[in-house]
């Protein structure tokens, strides 16, 4: 088929030189696919290199402490992926003797591995003829074939899976799937694609009908909730501070943070100070001051966090409080890590 041949030829010419493309071993392929689920290659590549240096094999990753894994993951977001990654490494290493399942169906049983990731690993590592379907694939196929199905609708995945399967050459599953992903990432991008210099432009129905900007169709909007976080950086008599682990389910599970006071709305300075004074510290604050002027806005997929950091001084020593050097060793959400790097830059 012309579409398939042109796509694979383009890929073989234009593909980026990436370390996980130089092997068919499932461990680095799995690692890269988990990291790149909701992350651009440019952002994910340094993490992949750090992980493979720290954990050259699945046994090394399985033997690691969870906090070490989360610390290395810090900044990639979606920390449940890191916890699932660690759990799957333990399962593969200890229950499967280090051998990954060798087919799509078996890979689907691994924690944190969905249909897209299983298809990617199965086709790239084992050559299994199962198509990948992700945002890039939706975009390429919807434009080329003028598919107006809402990609957020329940029927979309099955429809696009069947379309991709009909195009996939059984003996070149790895090249085709990687070509599809690479083409969507580099050529058929979401905004202002270079259609004039596209190898598929002669057959692209969206280009012919002037619909490139309208496809793929996505009608469902993500509901975003605003939350208001006030982090209290306690400075005790010897300059130590207190951190806590987020054990509740939800964002940043098992990461560390400073004592948190969440409010229902964004309060002014005086109201916030009164709330902090009433916070259950176990000591009386001597001084309370904001450490920056405007809230730091941290955007997650379904939440926008408006964050303020407050310094709370006391003249007593606090049991369990730690030095700045000790605190920096723990895994934190990137917004807190960045604040510490700036606030404690001299330490």
TrEMBL record:
Adenine glycosylase active on G-A mispairs. MutY also corrects error-prone DNA synthesis past GO lesions which are due to the oxidatively damaged form of guanine: 7,8-dihydro-8-oxoguanine (8-oxo-dGTP). It is an enzyme of class 3 (hydrolase). It catalyses: Hydrolyzes free adenine bases from 7,8-dihydro-8-oxoguanine:adenine mismatched double-stranded DNA, leaving an apurinic site. Pfam families: HHH, HhH-GPD, NUDIX_4. The lineage of its organism: Bacteria, Pseudomonadati, Bacteroidota, Flavobacteriia, Flavobacteriales. Belongs to the Nth/MutY family. GO terms for molecular function: 4 iron, 4 sulfur cluster binding; 8-oxo-7,8-dihydroguanine DNA N-glycosylase activity; adenine/guanine mispair binding; metal ion binding; oxidized purine DNA binding; purine-specific mismatch base pair DNA N-glycosylase activity. This is Adenine DNA glycosylase. The keyword Glycosyltransferase does not apply. SMART domains: ENDO3c (SM00478).
